[in-house]
Amino acid sequence: MVLMSDDVWLNDEQQRAWVRFISVVERLPGVLDTQLQHDADLTHFDYLTLAMLSEAPDRTLRMTELALVTNATLPRLSHVVSRLEKRGFIERSPSTDDRRATNARLTDAGWEKVGATAPGHVGTVRDYVIDPLDAQDVEDLHRVMGKILAKLDPEHGLRVQR
Amino acid sequence: MVLMSDDVWLNDEQQRAWVRFISVVERLPGVLDTQLQHDADLTHFDYLTLAMLSEAPDRTLRMTELALVTNATLPRLSHVVSRLEKRGFIERSPSTDDRRATNARLTDAGWEKVGATAPGHVGTVRDYVIDPLDAQDVEDLHRVMGKILAKLDPEHGLRVQR
DNA sequence: TCCACTTAGTTGTAGCATCAACCATTCGAT
DNA sequence: ATCGAATGGTTGATGCTACAACTAAGTGGA
To answer: Most exposed residue of A35, A93, A113, B4, measured as fewest CB within 10 angstroms of its CB?
Structure first.
């Protein structure tokens, strides 16, 4: 529109890919949230927070680390952890190393919650994303998302190489 | 976790692909919103709404149609259109065909807004998504997103085949 | 024709995210 | 040793989204 020079606009193939991609990006979170909200009274971000803690050593991470692995800003995480703490799934305690830092630890109740919630969530992920794809698709998804993620978050991409 | 049978959990390659994908899904909207908010005082969804109208015949669509192409629910769209109407970018008028229906039409000011905003937005899309990808990546992205979108929104996938 | 059902859209409310402002601690340079 | 800057984190206000409830208009059968 307005400017049609190739450096600015997208070509047809790029345009088609973008439209599909952004549609998925807009719709997928709603699907995940709906299932988790309905079955576990958690947002997808709540679940991710609990899940990341459940995989950490001693079920504990500093807020900054947790924000990194959950793709969140610190204010957002702080609010979410406050709510999850009120519900008894997480405990906060000041770090002894660095007195500015806060450790978030998954409680036993939080651990149970993740275990009870995971199968339903993974089922949704399978239904809407993984099962429609063959092995080649999954490989391509991994590669393409890697390139985009490297742009969206350069440092993080280098740290968590997997 | 808890249940490890292959039918329930994901294998390593699937897991890696999912983690990257969901990271992108969580981060991308923020990047788009930030640029548009900063440069045009629009959310990405605001922009999409205006852009879809700008491509429609007579710059007009019924609310239901507009909701479809913007991947939104009707309540969400209704609120957004109300705001955009207050700002003079959209006009609403009752449909003559079906007296339940409402037509949303892009005003001249709305048209100008889209034109002024598009280059910056497309620049962001290029920077973060398109430019890091080669032609093969774009093709793969298109194919894979097509399969996922077909699950997320079966009817729509059939209608807008492109 | 009447009544039940569906479709189109709006509105109010509650909850989550973003942003800016803020405090406390630590680091780095002089 | 001290002061300025950077880091780690929390909090409050504002704004958008989701959900439920609702009105109005069209549809389809008995």
So the answer is: B4
* Domains located in chain A, CATH noted: 39-121 (1.10.10.10)
Q: What is the pLDDT along chain A (162 residues), one digit of tens a residue?
A: 544 445 678 999 999 999 999 999 999 999 999 999 999 999 999 999 999 999 999 999 999 999 999 999 999 999 999 999 999 999 999 999 999 999 999 999 999 999 999 999 999 999 999 999 999 999 999 999 999 999 998 776 555 433
Chain B residues whose beta carbon lies within 8 Å of the beta carbon of residue A153? 23, 27
Category of B80 on φ-ψ map: left (φ > 0), alpha (ψ -120 to 50) or beta = alpha
B17 vs A144: CB contact, 8 Å cut-off? Answer: no
Q: Report CA torsion sign: B71, B76, B81, B86.
A: negative
Q: Do A26 and B29 touch (CB under 8 A)?
A: yes
